[in-house]
Amino acid sequence: MILIDGKKTADEIKKEIAEAVKLIVSTGKRPPHLAAVLIGHDGGSETYVAFKIKDCEEVGFRSTLIRFEDDVTEPELIAKVHELNNDDDLDGFIVQLPLPKHISEQKVIEAIDARKDVDGFHPENVGRLVLGLPAFLSATPFGIVELLKRYQIPTSGKNCVIVGRSNIVGRPLSILMSQKAVNATVTVAHSQTKNLKQVCAEADILIAALGSPEFIKADMVKEGAVVIDVGTTRVNAPDTKSGWRLKGDVKFDEVAPKCSYITPVPGGVGPMTRVSLLQNTLLAASRNI
Description:
This protein has 10 helices and 11 strands. By secondary structure, the chain is an alpha/beta fold. It folds into 2 domains: about 30-115, 3-Layer(aba) Sandwich (Rossmann fold), CATH 3.40.50.10860; about 140-270, NAD(P)-binding Rossmann-like Domain (Rossmann fold, 3-Layer(aba) Sandwich).
């Protein structure tokens, strides 16, 4: 069993991005600029955005954090989105999800200029992905495919099962995995899939993205499978300083001995999601600077 080290891989990519930024700045141009809009004080969102700001510093990007309280209105947030769309000094921005219940996530996503949508959530970018046209790819699927490529894991003709069909991970990832560059045969499984255990157990590449801690057990994984765990759920852990720990969708200790490759949680897909956001921002900057 080989542990797929997402942190190490992300660090390698960050070095590549930092070199690209040095080259941009050496020609007298400004560095790429990424902004994050954070609403409220959700612990997971706070941590994630803090990491993104740190990542920007490491590669030489400018970063801006824009905060709103939970009671911000939908029109106020969308007005800020329009302001950022029109800021020529800004290459890309994200609105950190989830949003308060009184705000429509879809309305906010659609309000973002697709040319600055470095999260890859806008319908235009999703549509371009489907058609195989240049687009900002959703960060987590982008990161997963990059991991498979950099670990030289064979994908062509392989049976890939994705458990989860969210617009952020499952659906865009199924498209990426089926494209000619990857050439996998893809099954998208979900809560209504019959014989889910059997479907998963036939996968050469099993990707768990359903947000249910330790859902994937050993009897759902075949010998020698590649297992990618996208789950990052906070569970109570009184023995830790924070009072919680991250759990993936895979019961790691039970599943790992059966795998040829497996990602840990934390340290697997998470760092790759963040570095993919940097890659998208660098691409946006190359069009703007």
